[in-house]
Specification:
By secondary structure, the protein is an all-alpha fold. The protein has twelve helices and two strands.
């Protein structure tokens, strides 16, 4: 994923900061346990949020344990214990990582394309394992990405069409085993999370896409002549806020057995702040930190 989703730390309680870190670390350990160390390098805050939400709607709490890892070899940290939701989130992370690398092979040129081809070889085995566990989800991802590629190749001057395609991909990642009422609300939530991520990513890539003459829906939709969002900021803010409102509304319809304050902090504070930072040009990936998983 893209790493846009994270809490607004100044408004979190200490235990909520530790809880988010425990979920992130738990997912990291689950990826290493199921797929090996390489997959842990592609873990993002976005997938930690996904894991947090799909776990919060399930009543059983599998607790935490103290353990060390590559990022913290000397000091033990609280880590969420292995659970069905963590295992499922690890599978989704592997699928998304592989498809993102495939997308880079199609979109990038030169050394970046060669690097993506090289990386794909190392991810192939993990991808096959995850796709065999979730064939329908993988097929939906393939279909959505094929549709997205066609939209890009056609240089479609629309925000909604490519954003909708990526949003449907993320909505499909909601566990199929969940009760229909929960699944429906979660699908709506993650549809708009996906839409928000896609449009925000297009904003952050605008300057680079201008230089490489790559597809960018914002550039085409507004016929921009320079890589600046200043003339279209208000319009983009409105469409992004629409998705943020729908994410908030869907969250209010869920029964959360834990982490409600943390999840609401991310949705109601974290996402709007990241939106403003991206539109202002002040956004820094991973909050400006270099440490793996640090808030």
């Amino acid at each position: 994923m893209f790493g846009f989703i994270r809490p607004f730390k100044p408004e979190l309680r200490v235990r909520e900061v530790e809880r988010f870190q425990a979920v992130y670390c738990g997912l990291c350990h689950e990826l290493k346990r199921k797929y090996g160390r390489l997959q842990t390098y592609f873990l993002s805050y976005d997938m930690a949020f996904f894991s947090l939400v799909i776990d919060a709607v399930c009543e059983p709490d599998f607790g935490t344990q103290r353990c060390r890892c590559d990022a913290s070899p000397f000091r033990k940290k609280n880590v969420c214990c292995s659970s069905p939701s963590l295992s499922y989130a690890a599978d989704v992370s592997v699928l998304l990582t592989y498809h993102k690398v495939n997308d880079s092979i199609q979109d990038e040129r030169g050394i970046k394309r060669l690097a993506a081809r090289f990386l794909r070889r190392f991810l192939q085995h993990d991808y096959q394992k995850a796709s065999q566990a979730h064939p329908q989800l993988n097929q939906t991802m393939c279909d959505c990405l094929s549709e997205l590629h066609a939209i890009e190749q056609a240089q479609t001057a629309s925000l909604d069409r490519p954003a909708d395609t990526f949003a449907r991909l993320l909505a499909a990642a909601v566990p199929a085993s969940y009760p229909s009422n929960i699944k429906r609300v979660l699908s709506q939530m993650f549809y708009h999370v996906g839409r928000w991520i896609y449009l925000l990513d297009a904003c952050t890539d605008l300057e680079e896409d201008f230089k490489s003459n790559s597809y960018n829906p914002i550039r085409l939709r507004f016929s921009l002549q320079t890589p600046s969002l200043s003339s279209v900021r208000t319009t983009l803010e409105h469409t992004l806020e629409r998705s943020l409102l729908d994410i908030h509304t869907a969250c209010q319809l869920l029964t959360l057995y834990r982490d409600q304050g943390l999840i609401e902090n991310i949705i109601d504070l974290g996402l709007p702040i990241i939106t403003r930072q991206v539109l202002d040009g002040t956004y820094h990936a991973n909050g400006g930190h270099e440490t793996h998983g640090s808030l």
